[in-house]
Amino acid sequence: MPESFDAHWLRLRADADAAARADGPYRALAAWAGDITPPLRCIDLGCGLGANAAWLAPRLPGPQHWRLVDHDPSLLAEAGRRSLADASGEPAATGTLRADLTDDLSSLTRGVELVTAAALLDLVAADWIDGLVTACRANGAAALFALTYDGHFASETPNDPDERRVRAAFNHDQRRDKGFGPALGPEATRYAARAFRAAGYRIHLGRSPWRLGPESADLQRALIDGKAEAARKTAPDDRTTIERWAHRRHQAIQDGTARLHVGHLDLFAKPPEPRR
Ligand SMILES: C[S@@+](CC[C@H](N)C(=O)[O-])C[C@H]1O[C@@H](n2cnc3c(N)ncnc32)[C@H](O)[C@@H]1O
């Protein structure tokens, strides 16, 4: 069963995502993109509201053509209303496509030079990444995967004694099938890095954690509820511990003392042959 994401959640996380992105992979991406004969043809897989393309387009040199892909028609409609602009402020050509990413990836990505996705890779299975690497390699396309959960989250203040159990249960849920087969969850970036490297790609990795403080109270609340719900599913015997943790976290948010660190990784995979 494919995972669904509501627009409210995607809006809530957009600022934290934008602030979190690592520098290194994007510098390498922009340098690679500068060698491509324009327009740079890009596809954003699992685009949601289009936040990834909107963040990337002004950081890439020269004219661009973007295709935004999602299976959710209401998210896609909102993504299609965004105007993307390149680094010189010129509008980037943008089209949307409703498609299921478990369908044929090689036809979806044919003719594309940059394949990108944000907050998607932890949902997919190893086979899906293998298929994507094959499709990218066949086109000589580069790949950029942003904001993939890496298995770490921690309340920084105050420290919580039950958190280790909640985290273990939540991370177990991350491996559930999200419509692509058994999800790689926190292992996804490492798996993708190995697969692209084996296909001759050069890998640029960077950490892109959310460091949330009192200014992100709504996002923290949504995260606590989401993590508690997922943890309860995989560890019903730990229900009391999970409830206690969630209650203390909500209390800390109300007191203005809650800080939450959520680990993510960004990966840029640069193709072996220079394209001109
Ligand atoms: C966590 S959201 C990330 C959205 C967006 N990339 C962002 O960074 O805000 C994952 C997105 O993947 C889409 N998605 C999940 N499974 C999919 C599938 N099988 N086919 C197409 N889209 C899918 C969801 O609809 C959702 O928009």
Number of DSSP E strands: 8
Overall body shape: globular
Mean pLDDT: 95
CATH level-two architecture of the domain at 7-153 and 176-212 and 263-270: 3-Layer(aba) Sandwich
- The CATH superfamily name of the domain at 7-153 and 176-212 and 263-270 is Vaccinia Virus protein VP39
List keywords for this structure.
single chain, 276 residues, alpha/beta, Rossmann fold, eight-stranded mixed sheet, 8 strands, 22% strand, globular, binds S-adenosylmethionine
Précis, in short:
The protein is built from 10 helices and 8 strands. With 276 residues, the protein is α/β, with parallel strands linked by helices. Strands 1, 2, 3, 4, 5, 6, 7 and 8 form an 8-stranded mixed β-sheet that branches.
Could you please describe the fold and organization of this structure?
This protein is of the alpha/beta class and 276 residues long. The chain has a domain at 7-153 and 176-212 and 263-270: Rossmann fold (3-Layer(aba) Sandwich). Helices cover 41% and strands 22% of the residues. The protein is built from ten helices and eight strands. The protein has helices at 7-20, 24-33, 51-56, 73-80, 105-108, 126-139, 163-173, 188-198, 217-234, 239-255, and strands at residues 40-45, 64-70, 93-98, 114-118, 142-157, 202-207, 210-212, 259-270. Strands 1, 2, 3, 4, 5, 6, 7 and 8 form an eight-stranded mixed beta sheet that branches. Strand 4, helix 6 (126-139) and strand 5 form a beta-alpha-beta unit. The radius of gyration is 19 Å and the shape is globular. The structure holds S-adenosylmethionine (SAM). S-adenosylmethionine binds at residues 2-3, 5, 10, 46-48, 51-52, 70-72, 75, 100-102, 118-120, 123, 179.
